[in-house]
C-alpha cells in the first residue's frame, strides 16, 4: 500500500511540474542587432526562444518602449522589438523625398519578418505601429499567427461615426496643428509636449515624466515632425477592407484614452466581428508603458491561447 501511495504521488507531482521557462538575458545588457531592410539598416532586440512575438512601437518611440515587456514575454517566447525606419538609433535621413507613410512602414515590417524568417508571428502594435501592423496583416496574413492592436489612428473609420468629423477636427486643431507650429518655430521640445499631452489627454504628462522617458521621446523627434507635418501618412481603410481579417485579433484601449481613439477602436471592433476588446485600467494611450503588469498578463493570455 505504501509503495502504491508513493507511486501515485510521484505521478501526480510529475504531472503538475511547471512549464520550463527560458533562461532570459537582461534586455538592457543584450546587444542590438541590425538587418538591412529595403536599403536601410534597422536595429532590433531579439531575446528568448519559442513562438515569435514582434513588437511595433508608435510615434516618439523606439524598441526601448517595450522594456517592461521584453523579459516577461521572453520567458516562453522569442521576442523581437525593432526600431521603425527614422526611429532611434537608426540613421536614416528624413528628407522631402522620403516616404514616411504607414504603407512604407508596413513594407519594412513585412520584409523584416521575412528576412528574419520569423513567420507566422504574434504581432503586437501600438498607435502608428498598430496601424502599420494592421496593414501588414491585411496584405500578408500568412505572416501572422495573431494580431494585437493598441489604439491605431485609423482616421478614415471616423466617417462611419456620428461625431467622427467633430472628433477628427478637434484632434487636428488641438494637437497636430499646434505641434506642427512649434516645429516651425524650432521649438521641438514644446512640440513633443503638445503631442504627448494631446494623445494622453494630460497636458502635464511630459513635464512630469522622468528624464529617461523624456530623453527617449526627444530621441525620436524626427519621426514626430514627419507625423504632424506630412500629408497622406495614413491609408484610407474602409470597414469592408478590414472585415477580411480572419486571424485572432485583440483590440486594447486605455480607460482614460482620448475619445477620438476610443471611437476608432470601437468601430474597428465592429468591423472585425471576432475580435476581442479589452479596456486596460489606469492607462491612457500609453497603455503598456503606463500599466505594464496588467498589459503583459492580458496579451500573454491572448497569445498563449492562439
Can you characterise this structure?
The chain has 306 residues and is α/β, with parallel strands linked by helices. It has one domain: Rossmann fold, CATH 3.40.50.1820. Helix content is 43%, strand content 15%. The chain contains twelve helices and eight strands. It has helices at 2-15, 67-74, 102-115, 128-139, 164-184, 188-200, 205-208, 211-218, 221-229, 239-242, 259-271, 292-304, and strands spanning 33-37, 40-47, 52-56, 78-82, 121-126, 144-150, 249-254, 276-280. It has an eight-stranded mixed sheet with strand order 1-2-4-3-5-6-7-8, sandwiched between helices. Helix 2 (67-74) links the parallel strand 3 (52-56) and strand 4 (78-82). Helix 3 (102-115) crosses helix 4 (128-139) and helix 5 crosses helix 9 (221-229). Residues 1-18 have low confidence and may be disordered.
Amino acid at each position: 500500500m505504501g509503495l502504491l501511495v508513493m507511486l501515485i504521488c510521484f505521478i501526480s507531482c510529475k504531472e503538475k511540474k511547471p512549464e520550463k521557462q527560458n533562461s532570459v538575458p537582461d534586455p538592457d545588457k543584450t546587444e542590438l542587432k541590425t538587418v538591412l531592410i529595403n536599403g536601410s539598416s534597422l536595429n532590433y532586440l531579439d531575446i528568448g526562444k519559442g513562438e515569435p512575438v514582434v513588437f511595433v512601437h508608435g510615434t516618439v518611440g523606439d524598441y526601448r518602449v517595450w522594456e517592461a515587456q521584453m523579459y516577461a514575454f521572453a520567458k516562453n517566447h522569442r521576442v523581437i522589438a525593432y526600431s521603425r525606419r527614422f526611429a532611434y538609433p537608426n540613421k536614416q535621413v528624413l528628407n522631402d523625398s522620403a516616404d514616411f507613410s504607414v504603407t512604407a512602414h508596413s513594407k519594412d515590417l513585412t520584409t523584416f519578418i521575412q528576412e528574419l524568417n520569423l513567420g507566422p508571428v504574434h504581432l503586437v502594435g501600438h498607435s502608428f505601429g498598430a496601424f502599420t501592423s494592421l496593414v501588414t496583416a491585411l496584405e500578408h496574413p500568412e505572416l501572422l499567427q495573431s494580431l494585437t492592436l493598441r489604439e491605431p489612428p485609423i482616421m478614415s473609420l471616423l466617417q462611419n461615426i456620428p461625431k467622427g468629423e467633430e472628433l477628427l477636427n478637434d484632434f487636428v486643431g488641438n494637437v497636430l496643428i499646434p505641434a506642427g507650429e512649434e516645429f516651425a518655430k524650432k521649438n521641438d521640445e514644446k512640440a513633443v509636449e503638445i503631442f504627448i499631452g494631446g494623445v494622453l489627454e494630460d497636458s502635464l504628462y511630459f513635464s512630469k515624466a522622468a528624464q529617461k522617458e523624456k530623453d527617449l521621446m526627444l530621441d525620436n523627434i524626427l519621426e514626430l515632425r514627419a507625423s504632424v507635418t506630412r500629408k497622406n501618412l495614413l491609408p484610407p481603410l474602409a470597414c469592408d477592407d478590414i472585415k477580411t481579417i480572419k486571424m485572432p485579433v485583440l483590440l486594447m484601449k486605455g480607460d482614460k484614452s482620448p475619445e477620438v481613439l476610443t471611437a476608432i477602436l470601437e468601430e474597428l471592433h465592429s468591423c472585425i466581428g471576432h475580435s476581442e476588446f479589452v479596456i486596460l485600467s489606469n492607462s491612457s494611450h500609453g497603455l503598456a508603458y503606463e500599466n505594464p503588469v496588467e498589459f503583459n498578463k492580458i496579451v500573454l493570455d491572448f497569445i498563449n491561447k492562439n
